[in-house]
Amino acid sequence: MQYYTVVGDSYEDAVRKAREQYGSGIRIHSRRDYTTRGGLFTRKMPRCEIICYLASGKQKGAEGTSEKDISEFEKEARTPDPKTLTRSERLDTEIYRSEGWAMEKAAGMLDENHITDPLRSALLEGFPSTGDAAVILSERIIKAVGIDYGRQLHPHHFTVFIGPTGSGKTTTLAKVAHLFRSSGRSVAMVSLDSYRTGAYEQISAFGKALSIPVAMAGAEDELLAAMERFASIDMIFIDTMGISPRDKELTLRLRTLLSLLDRQRTDYILTVPASMKEEDITEQYLSYSRFSSPSLAVTKLDETGTLGNVLSFAYSRSVPILFFTDGQKVPDDIEKASGTVLLEHLKGIGLDMKSVRKQLSIQQ
Ligand SMILES: Nc1nc2c(ncn2[C@@H]2O[C@H](COP(=O)(O)OP(=O)(O)OP(=O)(O)O)[C@@H](O)[C@H]2O)c(=O)[nH]1
Ligand SMILES: [Mg+2]
Question: What CATH architecture does domain 148-337 belong to?
């Protein structure tokens, strides 16, 4: 049996088109309602796609249309019943339904997660027409988005936190320092933020709560003194002030201070809230890219449902992800980035590990 797909603005429109094209012998197998994506100058539009077939012996022009027929079609479409088909018809239908749908489903998942080009196109390129869309997509996402396992295992002596104001630099720094100390390294924290009121008090409070030594370094001589003081410590975490990419003077001051660090022994971590727009992340990244090639700490995952902006940015600039944070609690609300954690934060794609974990903790 031959199946046809017809798309209309509404169900009635699709049925009308199908009847015009294939005649009144058409039978509706199933329907799917959706909206078009919309774009810069176009609105989202409702669409209805019907899959239909020709009832045997009823060719175009064989009979006229009647209101009774239309209502019969509608009834069928609302309650498609594969049981009424013969075995071979059912088989045809199943093949038809799986073919070409995987890619469409995958595209829907990417849109739901706000994943944009060029990552979107890369993930959909040559997408198989059959198979489990979520599984195929998971594998492709993990391959496309870089995770910085190297830095997780072998971090450098200095780790500098950079990023927009309020993005979570200081909080994440304290969490990361604690994480590395738990793996047996000695750690210290140095703040270069002599601008924001209360900045030193904030990092000192974290230092006190976590028993990590802290130094303040607003000028070059103070930074040199701190480096000398902590020379025998494995990892020194350096906090910076949030700067606007347009504040050239502050950027220059920060660069001057950071130029004292040995480049070969320094990692940079750009903290970006998961909800931040891709253009804004790119602007921040570019303002620091002259003197650093950072990895990402994606913060405030608990405040947003989508990770697409950050992933689209990470892919287009080849910036690997190092950490995810999902809450204000120091030092607990942090996870090292991994494929599983990444998928966990994507809607409808990954394993629902969060609810599995929740269930396990309830049972314990
Ligand atoms: N919900 C949530 N809040 C967070 C997270 N990380 C940090 N915050 C909060 O975000 C606010 C700003 O965090 P900070 O660590 O001070 O950010 P910052 O980038 O150092 O800010 P400046 O130094 O002012 O540029 C604080 O209230 C934090 O508790 C997170 O993962 N989730
Ligand atoms: Mg800060």
Answer: 3-Layer(aba) Sandwich (3.40)
